[in-house]
Structures are given as C-alpha cells and as structure tokens.
Amino acid sequence: MKRFKDITIGIILGAFVTTGIILSGTADGASEWSRLAQLLPFSQQNLLVMRQARSILEMYFIDGESGPDEKKFFFGSMRGLVSAADDPYTRFVEPEQLSEENMEMEGEYGGLGMYIGSRDGKLLIISPIEGTPADRAGIKPLDEIVKIDEKIIIGMDQNEVVKILRGPANTSVKVWVRRTGEPDLLSFDLKREVINIKTVRVEMIDKIAYVRLNNFHHKTSSELEAALAEAKAKHAEGIILDMRNNPGGLLNVAVDVASQFLDGGLVVSMKGRISRFDDALYANEGKATNLPLVVLVNEGSASASEIVAGAIQDRGRGLLVGMKTYGKGSVQSLFNLPDNAGMYVTIARYKTPSDKVIDHKGLMPDYKVEGGPVTDKSKDAQLQKALGVMKNVMLAPKAKKTS
What we know:
CATH superfamily of the largest domain: 2-enoyl-CoA Hydratase, Chain A, domain 1
Helix content: 25-40%
Number of domains: 3
Distance between the termini: 99 Å
C-alpha cells in the first residue's frame, strides 16, 4: 500500500508540475508567441509538451542529476526530428561525428573497416574494405549486425552503432552478425586499427589489366588515372574493373571515374521533389581509354559504384559480371548547421542513362556468377568468368580481324 501511495503521490506531483508549465506558458503573453510563431519549428502546444517531457526526465528519472545536459537533450531531439522522415539515409550528424566522416572521405580513419547501412529496419554491412580487420575476419556484404560485445543493437540508430564500433587503435571488439543461410549467429573478434584507404590498385593478369577500385574518395580519380597509365605502359589489351564490395562515395568522383572510360555523354541523371535538384551529369571528353572493358560487381557494390557500372552497361561501353548490386541509388546533400553539426538529406534519386532507377532495385549483371573476392585469384569464380568474357567476347572480334 505504501508503494502504491508513493507512486500515486508521484503522479499527482507530476501532474501539478506539468499543469504549472502549461499555465505559465499560456500566461506569458499571446503577443510574444505571435511574434515568434513564424520562427518556431512547432506549435506552442507541442513546444510546451516537449518542455514538459524534459521537466519530467529532470525530476523523476533515476539518474536525473547526472543525466543529459542541454546539448544532449537538443541533439536527441534533432535525431528524433530527422528520423521521422523514415529514410535510412536522411540523418542528423553531431559535430564530432561529422568531423570523423569528413576525415573518412579524405581516406584515413580509425575503426574496423566496414561500411554499414539501414534497410527494412536492419543494420546491414554494405561491404568490408579490402585488407582491413573486417575483411580479414571474413565479414561479408549483407551480414546483419545484431550485437556488439554484449550490447544488443537491434533498433538502435545507425550513428550510435558506428560510434560503438569505432574506438582507439589496438582495442578489441566482438561483432555478432546474422548471415543468410546460417542457422546460428556468427561472432567475429576484431581489433581496431587506423584504416588507410588506398582506393585503386592495378596488376597485370596475362595481358589484361586488373584494376581494383575500393571506394570513391578524394584521391580516387588521380589514383585511377595513374593505374590506367601503368596499364597502358605495360601494353594491356583490356581492362577488368573490379568494383565488388565498393560502397560508393562522392558523386563528383563517380563522374570523374566514368570519364576515364566514357568519352563524353550522359553518366547519370537525378530527379528530385524540387526541380532545382534535377540534374544530368556528363563525362568529360578526351580522357577515356578505349581498351575493352569488363566490370565486376556484387551485392556489396553500392551508390557511386552503381552509377559507374550503370553508365558503362547502358552506354554499351563494357559488360558486367557478378551478382545484382546493392541498390542504393539516392542522392544525399549535406546541410551544415550551427555548432558544426549537419544533416544529410535525401534530395533526389539516380537514374542510369537508359532511365533505369537504381534505388532499392540494383543493377543486373550481363553474366550472373555467384561468389566473391578471394585472395587466390585462380579460385575467384567471378574474376575467372570476367577474364573469360574479356578473352572470348570482348577481344574475340579483334583476334579474328587480325588473323
């Protein structure tokens, strides 16, 4: 009875406190509210409810004295506001995280080396980055992250999960994933390290230049240009562009990459709700190689890599080998906010040159081959198929003509 009485008293006190807030709010003067009405993000009533919710937390939450400060309350409100758009790529970013993401685009950061995204309420690994802890441990595209150490992350905000995964170099973390076809959860013991991203590398396989493109960062265009120059110097007869497990990156870099293979012409178009976001981007003229081209893609190829692959396929510049791509075909724009925070907002969707929508659909390869990248290239079924297509399809007409 005493416990029931205490709870009842608490409810009565809460009602008294919140009623007082509402009364004081309405007594402050209608003229002040009318002047501010056009500037405030919510109605007077909704703002008072938010103030009421904060007061309840500060008064009754068991850890209230050491609970969230003004900034944390505000950032939490911003995350809730933006997440109401119900789009996994539209998100609020706190200043510290935005700084980390900008550093990531420069090509170096600390962590595990994997890109994650949200789909159908699940946090999925889009792709591990080649040569990083996640890649070496055997994490695969479309693995669903379920638990980190002993913390269940189902339903958590993507940004919060990224924070948990990152940490100082040489510290350890256990990641639990659910993988299609596996009856039990898989666990991976990973050690964080500084991730240095070299986005392009090239090697010769017989007379074919094998070009691995991992990401679309600031340095990618120049690295790709150097790789193609090396291939030309070694008298390559064709190019295999491997964009498997490439999660994408910067849109302008995707156009620059496409310009290395397409001599002008449409690369991608964008259609937004607001006409000023509608756009069409074209390849630069005079930079492209004319060597025969085969592109490797899989379920970890997303965003910018899908733009490049889609343009090459639609324009008849090359053939795609592998598996259907991820299907991330929307455009996010960064809106900078005060205090160095930011908002990524989906403003448009991509379309390939033949007007195909990539978002949630992906690209179908010309030659479907299951598998994935493996260290021993002789056992890489997708790569071996790409080599066969290059020799027997792309180079065959040239061989007949010269014989």
